[in-house]
């Protein structure tokens, strides 16, 4: 089931939650809605579900207008950040809920319900919890039950609102890989909201980056990471440095370093900004190579196998962040307070009017 | 063993607070009730049995327990409704209504009784319209129910209100997204969550009604066998220096009320154990 969002707007009093958003979600894809808090991603998800009404714009499921259809008739499965399991019901009754509330004429028999619930519990690998109550389960288990409950009604669309947001880091990572495998098995059109860029890049077929109610970029995980559409997306995905750059006929200069800027072949002596990710900066211990910036190492922090450096150059006040493997750092013999030379390997250049994000 | 356990407690002051609690309970509650029960045991079994099975007394039990039960049930329904309205909707004067709910706690019950009888007498503002339909409220058993409903109003509202406020909106959204209509959501999701609070409110309203005296005696008319409540008989016996008779009837009230509260508490314990 494809979903089409056509110029949707939503305000809460003075706050613009969704600002003229138009998107198409393709059938069978797992899409991430990624953005900082307050970017409108959850509101957009709730509008798709029918839990919120848009102020203007239309929602279509497979070409059929569902904007005014009540949530209970829309055929969506919704998974909440805090699970929203019914705590007075056993796990079995929770999963069976969507089937047992059907009117008698369309309700499956008791036996059919039992078989289906047990199949779903096996699918989420929790069939042994059928007679337990939600409070007896861990957070990760509860979320899997919530997912089984949403799948029981055979939704045309699965919507997940920060599904792993309340879990600790290790469980999060396990569960999102599990979700990916599950999606490959059942192939229901799915949209999940997250503020975690790593989660979005790892799990989804497609990432939609949102900011202040607007869609900033829409593409595959590789596209949005490798070719961010604007400085906001650049900054939101990963640790990035901003350099003042001098743009001239298709290239940009940062001090002694030149970066290609092929999108500006006709600009002459313009000033702009170059964005370079921390792991795209080579740090050298000697000045014997061309195209480098002299810098002083102001901070060294070792995070497992990676070393993160903060360096100060005479180009600006904000420290430059660089990352490298620990063995390389040791081989170079760098140390905090010492001198180093920087060479940006790759980056993207934006003109100031684009760089306000 | 117990000493090492006590030493390991993280929150200090267990001995002090527990001791104070027991002393307080003893002085305020156990000593009076114990003395009263002790006094009852000075009666012979025959006198006791005779005192509690007189026809007039038995009729008063029926009225007291029956009318309290009806009053508490009415409060259960309308108290839940009032709590729902107060929590879920915004309307002008909401805070005023919220404050008024506690009025039956504060108003002297005699004042309430006199007000009720003035309103519901067959010439009163409200009573005259009931009269048109041939319904009499003042000086009938219906009047007793009205008074007991009035004094029990705050209990269900005040027990259900906080639970309803804490009820996650997500439950209702989850239920709706799974295809449940509004009525099904209320029946299968909201009601079970409120059930323990409803039960508590009902028990409190019932217990309060059972012990109520001041507001009832004005509106009931105190007709023997018809509109006499048990607390009235106890007062009447005590005024005639029949302390044994009063204590005997009081014991019956105490035992039955305690048994009913115990059952309701047991029910609550059972439901909360299931839901964690």
Name of the CATH architecture of the largest domain in chain A: 3-Layer(aba) Sandwich
Low-confidence stretches of chain A: none
General shape of chain B = globular
Unreliable spans of chain B are: none
Structurally, how many domains make up the residues of chain B?
1
Number of domains of chain A: 2
Cα-atom Rg of chain A, whole angstroms?
Answer: 25 Å
The percentage of residues in β strands of chain A lies in: 25-35%
CATH superfamily of the largest domain in chain A: P-loop containing nucleotide triphosphate hydrolases
| Helix coverage percent of chain A | 25-40%
Distance between the terminal alpha carbons of chain A, to the nearest Å?
A: 34 Å
* Mean pLDDT value of chain B: 88
| Main sheet characteristics of chain A | 6 strands, mixed
Using the coordinates above, name the CATH class of the largest domain in chain A. Answer: Alpha Beta
Describe the structure.
- The complex is a heterodimer of chains A (357) and B (276).
- Chain A contains nine helices and 20 strands.
- With 357 residues, chain A is α+β, with helices and mostly antiparallel strands.
- Chain A has two domains: 3-235, 3-Layer(aba) Sandwich (Rossmann fold), CATH 3.40.50.300; 239-354, RNA polymerase II/Efflux pump adaptor protein, barrel-sandwich hybrid domain (OB fold (Dihydrolipoamide Acetyltransferase, E2P), Beta Barrel), CATH 2.40.50.100.
- A six-stranded mixed sheet of chain A has the order 6-7-8-3-9-10, with helices on both faces. A five-stranded antiparallel sheet of chain A has the order 13-12-11-14-20. A five-stranded antiparallel sheet of chain A has the order 15-19-16-17-18.
- The radius of gyration of chain A is 25 Å and the shape is elongated.
- The mean pLDDT of chain A is 90.
- With 276 residues, chain B is an all-alpha fold.
- Chain B has one domain (31-275): MetI-like (MetI-like fold, Orthogonal Bundle), CATH 1.10.3720.
- In chain B, 80% of the residues lie in helices and 0% in strands.
- Chain B has helices spanning 2-8, 14-41, 45-53, 55-88, 94-100, 103-106, 109-120, 127-132, 141-166, 169-177, 182-211, 214-220, 230-239, 243-275.
- The longest helix of chain B is centred in the N-terminal third of the chain and has 34 residues, at 55-88.
- The mean pLDDT of chain B is 88.
- The interface between A and B is medium-sized, with 30 and 21 residues.
């Amino acid at each position: 089931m494809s979903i089409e969002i056509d110029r949707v707007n939503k305000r809460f009093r003075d706050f613009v939650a969704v600002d003229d958003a138009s998107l198409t979600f393709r059938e069978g894809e797992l899409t991430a809605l990624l953005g900082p808090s307050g970017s409108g991603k959850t509101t957009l998800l709730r509008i798709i579900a029918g839990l919120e009404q848009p102020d203007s714009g239309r929602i279509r499921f497979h070409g059929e207008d569902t904007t005014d259809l009540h949530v209970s008739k829309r055929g969506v499965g919704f998974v909440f950040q805090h699970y929203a399991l019914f705590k007075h019901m056993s796990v079995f009754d929770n999963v069976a809920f969507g089937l047992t509330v059907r009117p008698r004429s369309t309700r499956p028999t008791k036996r059919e319900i039992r078989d289906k619930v047990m199949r779903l519990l096996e699918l989420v690998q929790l069939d042994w919890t059928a007679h337990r109550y939600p409070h007896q389960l861990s957070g990760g288990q509860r979320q899997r039950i919530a997912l089984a409950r949403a799948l029981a009604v055979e939704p045309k669309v699965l919507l997940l609102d920060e599904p792993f947001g309340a879990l600790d880091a290790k469980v999060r990572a396990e569960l999102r890989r599990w979700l990916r495998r599950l999606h490959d098995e059942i192939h229901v059109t799915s949209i999940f909201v997250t503020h975690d860029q790593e989660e979005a890049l790892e799990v989804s077929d497609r990432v939609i980056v949102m900011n202040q109610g607007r869609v900033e970029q829409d593409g595959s995980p590789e596209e949005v990471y490798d070719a961010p559409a604007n400085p906001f997306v650049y900054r939101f995905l990963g640790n990035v440095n901003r350099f003042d750059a001098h743009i001239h006929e298709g290239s940009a200069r940062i001090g002694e370093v030149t970066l290609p800027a092929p999108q500006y072949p006709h600009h002459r002596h313009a000033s702009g900004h170059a964005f370079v990710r921390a792991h795209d900066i080579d740090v050298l211990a000697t000045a014997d190579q061309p195209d480098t910036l002299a810098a002083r190492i102001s901070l060294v922090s070792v995070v497992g196998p990676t070393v993160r450096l903060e360096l100060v150059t005479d180009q600006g006040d904000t420290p430059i962040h660089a990352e490298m493997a620990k063995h390389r750092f040791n081989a170079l013999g760098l140390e905090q307070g010492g001198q180093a030379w920087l060479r940006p390997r790759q980056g993207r250049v934006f003109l100031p009017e684009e760089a306000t994000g | 063993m117990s000493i090492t356990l006590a030493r390991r407690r993280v929150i200090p002051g267990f001995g002090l607070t527990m001791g104070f609690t027991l002393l307080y309970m003893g002085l305020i509650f156990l000593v009076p009730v114990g003395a009263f029960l002790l006094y009852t045991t000075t009666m012979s079994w025959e006198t006791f049995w005779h005192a509690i099975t007189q026809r007039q007394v038995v009729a008063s039990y029926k009225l007291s327990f029956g009318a309290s039960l009806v009053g508490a049930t009415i409060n259960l329904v309308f108290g839940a409704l009032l709590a729902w309205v107060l929590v879920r909707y915004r309307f002008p004067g909401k805070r005023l209504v919220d404050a008024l709910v506690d009025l039956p706690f504060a108003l002297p019950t005699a004042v309430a009784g006199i007000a009720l009888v003035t309103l519901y007498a067959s010439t009163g503002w409200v009573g005259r319209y009931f009269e048109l339909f041939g319904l009499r409220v003042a000086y009938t058993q219906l009047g007793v129910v009205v008074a007991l409903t009035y004094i029990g109003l705050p209990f269900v509202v005040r027990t259900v209100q906080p639970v309803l406020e804490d009820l996650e909106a997500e439950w209702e959204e989850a239920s709706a997204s799974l295809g449940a209509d509004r009525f099904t959501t209320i029946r299968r999701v909201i009601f079970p969550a409120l059930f323990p609070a409803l039960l508590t409110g009902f028990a409190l309203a019932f217990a309060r009604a059972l012990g109520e005296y001041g507001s009832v005696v004005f509106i009931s008319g105190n007709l023997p066998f018809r509109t006499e409540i048990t607390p009235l008989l106890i007062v009447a016996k005590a005024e005639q220096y029949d302390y044994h008779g009063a204590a005997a009837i009081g014991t019956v009230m105490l035992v039955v009320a305690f048994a009913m509260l115990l059952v309701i508490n047991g029910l609550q314990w059972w439901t909360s154990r299931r839901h964690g």
